[in-house]
Amino acid sequence: MSSVELTDVLGMLAGTFTTAAFIPQVIKTWKTKSTRDISLVMFLIFCTGLLLWLAYGIILGSWPIIIANAAVFVLAATILVFKIRYP
């Protein structure tokens, strides 16, 4: 396995774990419709950061960065929508 392939595998594994970390929160928020303990400002800043990482990945043409940040953005944006809808 070349170093380029190894870095892609490492990136995909990192992306998988960081994406999976959001799934329990999305499920809990969906079920309870409660976002009282979630910071709106933190999620606004976080979603902005994810969009910047996504742009960075697109510029580099790095699929691990693109896929991971797009997936986490969808999950984080879901929580953000719940936060706005169910304060």
Question: Secondary structure elements and their pairing?
Answer:
Layout: H1 3-20, H2 23-32, H3 40-60, H4 63-85
Description of the molecule:
Helix content is 83%, strand content 0%. The protein is an all-alpha fold and 87 residues long. It starts with a helix and ends with a helix. The model has no long low-confidence stretch (mean pLDDT 90).
Continuous helix count: 4
What is the makeup of the main sheet? none
CATH 2nd-level architecture: Up-down Bundle
Q: Round the mean pLDDT to the nearest integer and report it.
A: 90
- % residues in beta strands: under 5%
Radius of gyration: 15 Å
CATH class: Mainly Alpha
Given the C-alpha coordinates, what overall shape results?
Answer: elongated
Number of domains: 1
Unreliable residue stretches:
none
**Percent of residues in helices:** over 70%
Order of helices and strands: HHHH
Termini, distance in Å? 49 Å
Structural class: mainly alpha
Keywords:
87 residues; mainly alpha; Monooxygenase; 83% helix; 0% strand
Give the gist of this structure.
By secondary structure, this protein is mainly α.
